[in-house]
Amino acid sequence: MTFLEQAIEKGYATISGEGTKQRITYVAVNHSERFSDPEEQVRAEYWAELIFRYGYEPARIGVEVTVPDRTPKDAADLVIFRDDARTRPFAVIECKRDGITDAEFTQAVEQACGNGTWAKLRALYVGVVAGQTRRFLDFSEKYGVLEREANIIADLPQQYGKPEEWRFKKGTQDDIQPVSKETLIATIRKCHQTLWGGGRLSPPMAFGELCKLLFVKIQDEKTSRKNGQHYEFQIKTHEPSRKLAERIKAIYDTAKQRDPQVFTDTIRIDDATLRTLASHMEAVNFSKTDPDTKGVAFEQFMDGFFKGDFGQYFTPREIIAFAVEMMRPKADDLVLDPACGSGGFLLYALDQVRREAVDYHDPKNIEHYNHWHDFAEKRLFGIEINDEIARVAKMNMILHGDGHSNIVGEDALGRLDAIRQRTGNNGFKKAAFDLILTNPPFGSQISLTERPYLSDFDLGNQEDAKGKKKPRKNQKTEILFIERIWQFLKPGTGHAAVVLPDGILTNSSLQYVRDFLLERFRLLAVVSLPQTAFSHFGAGVKASLVFLRRRAENEKPKDDEAIFMAAPEKIGYDATGRKCENQLPEVAEQYRVFEKDAQHFFV
User: Fold this and answer.
1) Into which CATH architecture does domain 291-601 fall?
2) CB burial readout 218-249, b (16+ within 10 A) else e
């Protein structure tokens, strides 16, 4: 039950009407406002929190209190008074909707400070509340009306007391709590806006820095501490930004030494920005928030973030979900995405194994946890050439329940022994994987002069008239990925779901690629995607999802091999990204029937 629900149950407030006409009445002060206003909802919830968490009497909390003789005229959202007559202010609070910009928050701080330090409404404490983001300032003793940092306190005092040194402590009423999907999305969005706003960092760099802080926050939450001990990742009373930054960076450095594969460089955020980020994140328990909630929140945020210029790092969830449903990974499969981007295919594979765990074990038992967690930690592998995006994938895995240690920032087309040597990860072996799920990059050319490994590939060579092999000067990345996928899969049993441009399947000049594909793979299914499948994410190439099985060492193609073909027109979203009918689940069902009827074709 929320604080506001408790207040309504106690009769301290009433809500009447519906929709845009819904109103809240603060009974003790006989004040009514439109409750459909997001700002009013923040005020109402914090007003109730002042009663039930801070211990203030409803009759002593003024709502929309006019500031005497203020020009221009202004009103304070909430004022806690020290007397029943409501004449002696203790604290003045400004409330704003969740998700306002940093500039708007700073403006709200100035508004609250102006109201709270005005001679005729002189308060000891001033605060701004915008959802989970809060700031409180101490004007009780030595701090002048212009001070905005040295007087920052961890939290508003309870029951007219003095400020606590720390707000969040383990095992107390002020322990950090799991949050809803909406709150988590809002928190991640606010953090990214703080880092990206004003062009401080490029979007992927900003997201990379955010991932570092999420990593630090989770590490702090997981650190062993007794009940009543404070968390480190939070704002401390009367602590300069420099000291807060030093504490957070120290946690990061310790965690980096313990797990050097996650992050290798330093936190590149100035101290003031780091304080703002801490104010966004300190109240959220990322570790205890349900993995599905974290996954959906992170995914929905990235859905917007990775459009446009960064669309190459994001595959639409409808396509990922379909590929995973077609392949149905199991807990004992070794799964790889050699162009993993933000990690979508790997996470959906993990979700599939989580669902499988329910079929085998009671969710309350450790066997259920081990079923999917062992899969995440030991059997999911990803390669991403962009280091910043690889970090995003690692953070995505951590938020979903781990598995980040097998995500590496490397060129998947490079020599495998070099990849293993640089990363220290021996899992990236030829003929090792049961399943590959991937959407490799399209259109880029690999040059022999820049990437000598091109000549290592059969598809990186061509035969002259005498049948002698000669290295090509250039080759497209998607063509080389076909061969690399073949190399990674187990002979005879390894399966793959790959997004490929239709040109590979239709262009007469690429017949040699199709010959390679049909000779080395058993082609199971081709699902042609609409022209607009990737246009909303910055790519307009017509593509298909191709489902393959690597042939056994001595297996030869047969003339009567059946291939499932489908061309759905609607896949869950249109060219603008709006939701529409999704025919992909129906295609998956049709494939199951086809597979059953033609099972003698499948090995």
Assistant:
1) 3-Layer(aba) Sandwich (3.40)
2) bbbbeeeeeeeebbbbbbbbebebeebbebbb
